[in-house]
Amino acid sequence: MPHTTEWKVRLQLVEDDGGRTEARAVLDTGTTSLTATGAARRAPGDEDAPVIGDEFAAGRALRDLGSRLLRTAEQDVEARGAAPEPRTSPTYGWEL
Fold this sequence. Notes:
Blueprint: E1 8-15, E2 20-28, E3 33-41, H1 50-79
Antiparallel strand pairs: 1-2, 2-3
């Protein structure tokens, strides 16, 4: 049963004057959404390179989003009664 769908991810990055960058990632599946966050802070002696803070904050937000999405999938599998026994894979048999 072939299936094609498109999900959208919005990523917002905000840096303050103190060298702290906050990232907010929102996954929109068309029927639901998941939100995750990440942050980075420049050390006082570091060079002012905003792109590096953006990369760290965005990467952390996307990693958080991935974790939240996997937890949602695990809960969906459990809700269908397919995960009562201990599993060796955190993705319940779905290959990575």
